[in-house]
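Handout, tutorial session.
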Amino acid sequence: ADVTVNSTSENTEINYSLKGTASEGMFKIYSASKFNLKLNGVNLTNSDGPAVNIQSKKKCNIILEAGTSNMLADGVTYATSTEDQKSAFFSEGQLDFDGSGSLTVRSNSAHAICSDDYIHILGGTVTVTGAAKDGIHANDYFKMSGGTLNITSAGDGVECESGYILISGGSITSLNNSVDSKGLVCDSTLTISGGTIKLTLSGNQSKGIKATQKILIN
């Protein structure tokens, strides 16, 4: 089923837990306050839009529960909407990924994971098995301080549209084979101060690392 949550609570940090399987479903949320979304063994596919659609500008802590495998996928085309729906896992607000479980995302139409704010990966294993556009697409900034990120996408591996990229820990592996694709790309400063990064690109005019401003490798 398609499930929509409307939370007007402004004083309580609510925990939502998703588990089970739906071959045709969606989880959408509107929230006036920050909240936690626990992925506790969920397998969710939505043929006409994002599998998870967060229509809130508040921060969402994504917790990949220990010992669980979670999978999200969208369809080839999205139903018409007046709201942004740019990826299989979409959020208007900030996304923090943590925990020790795993999340696998596939987008057949758009980005795999996208935030119109920032994305920060602190823990867990996030795998993009395929994306029609970017594997990870953020607006304000992308940070990675822990965890494992594996990406296969037709677009860029990780793109920050308007801000910076900071990688201080964790492991990133990205495979991109389209023309003019980038492994890591941002519109500001790109800093690598830790972690392990492996970028493989085969398309003409592709770049492993690209920044509009400075690139700092410490």
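The second record follows below. Compare its token runs with those of the first.
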Amino acid sequence: MSRHVRRAGLVRRLRELDGAAGRTTYADGAAIVEHAGERWTVRPPFGLAHARVYEKVEPGPLFEALDEDHLVAALLVRLGGYAVGVLEGERLVASKVGTRFVKGKHKKGGSSSNRFRRRRDEQARALIGAATETAVGVLEPWRDRVEWVALGGDRAGVRQVLADPRLAWIEAKALPRFFTVPDPRQRDLERLPYDLYAAEVTTAES
């Protein structure tokens, strides 16, 4: 079973086991902790360079990786709204959000349905355009300092924004995890660090 666990809770749990009988293997960007018949594979969100095997529970190098703060840009886009920001550790240092009305689905057919579809497409293009310009305006000053980029919201919307050549640099810095955000707002940027610094944890019997 795999899940994402926030770093404070994960550190608290593993600190209780520090030095206990077991085995800890650091390899391929993950820490594998084996103790009392259970195996935890912990993969920090920003990587783990340490490589070594310990014949006990040794979470120290993992704690160091989890404790590191990073400069992360965030781009959250859905039809209806967008949020763009820059996070220095858990602190939001730059941000801008916006909303655009985009009509929902149309149940009737015929010419009215075609008019509705054209209108909806126009509204969607306007939102993507606004999100793109906002992303360029907010992120460009930080471009050389940003280590990673967190993407979220709707994948199709994000892809359309990233199609702009001015944002081509983002792809190489995008985190593998895509963040689910139903309605991007300022509050989502402020809450993002809780998920951003969560580690992927897989548990199994050893």
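Points raised in discussion: The first helix runs from residue 7 to 15.
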